[in-house]
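explain this:

___
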Amino acid sequence: MTKAKAVIFDMDGVVVDSEPRHERAFLQVVTELGYADNHGIEFGKYVGRSDRDLWVDFVARHKPAQTLEVLLAMKRARVLEILRRDRPLFDGLPELIEKLALKYRLAIASGSEPQVVEEVLTFKRLRRFFSVVTTSSEVNHGKPAPDIFLRASQLLGVDPNECWVIEDSKPGVAAGIAAGMQVIAITNTHPAEELVNATRVVATYGEIGNILLDQ
């Protein structure tokens, strides 16, 4: 790999401790719709993928009266409410971003909807550190396809092999590797043994700083 110029962050499970909150919002919606005990969705299989993927499968399974867009909007409203209340940024993450911004161009590449991403980036005024924010709504294929990371590097004006990716999920790690980038996986969501395809696996934001700030 040539000398890195950019760092691309996933959001859910990396910037913000949102994976359990996304699941809570999903369960609230399906319960309201009458599917509390028979929704048939194994939420863990959708970690790292887009909300749309989850709801497309839900619609295919149950054919509810609500449209896909209505379901997305219902879940979005619930998760925004939860995130605004909890503001669950990971400890050490804001400080790491501030330090990395002095050395690298930074981007967010998230499977979440744009409204959710922008809301999270208001916490601690994080948005000012990212010159690029892109979501799965802007690409044809979500993670584990590399599309979103390739788009981020294009918008950054940096070659893929000059980028590090910070991820927490197996689809995210696969996407970063497929994009030709080096990937640091943090064990916020999955244990280390499930993230072995990443370039590096870490448990803390301090370790990420040691890798990227000492280059």
Summary: Residues 17 and 88 are 5 Å apart (CA to CA). The first strand starts at residue 6 and ends at 9. The helical segments are 19-32, 51-62, 68-86, 93-100, 114-120, 147-156, 170-178, 205-213.
